[in-house]
Amino acid sequence: MDDAETAKNLSTVEKACRDLVRAGADRRAVIVAVGGGVVGDVADLLRPVCARIALVHVPTTVVAQVDSAIGGKTA
Q1: CB atoms within 10 A of CB 19
Q2: In whole angstroms, what is the distance from residue 21 CA to residue 42 CA?
Q3: For helices 10-22 and 37-49, angle between their N-to-C axes, nearest 10 degrees
């Protein structure tokens, strides 16, 4: 996915969810979000929308690291 702020939209989440379904992901699957804040935010929304899949954040920017550590805005 594109990591620009404009990627934070329902089309991106829909495409990712479709990709997960095609790959056969179920509740035992794990999403690993490697990237900055945009990637983490999209993954945070994708997780509950698509079968409550487990999520692991691997933040690659300082802002994403802080957001992952003390965020909570998507909880």
Answers
A1: 13
A2: 16
A3: 60
Among 71, 5, 13, 59, CA closest to 32: 59
State the pLDDT at residue 12. 92
Q: What is the pLDDT of residues 28-40, one digit of tens each?
A: 999 999 988 888 8
Three-class SS of residue 30? strand
pLDDT band at 6 (very low <50, low <70, confident <90, very high): very high
Contact 3, 30 (CB under 8 A): no
d(Cα 23, Cα 35) in Å, to the nearest integer?
21
Structure tokens at 43: 């993954």
Token couple for 24 = 């056969």
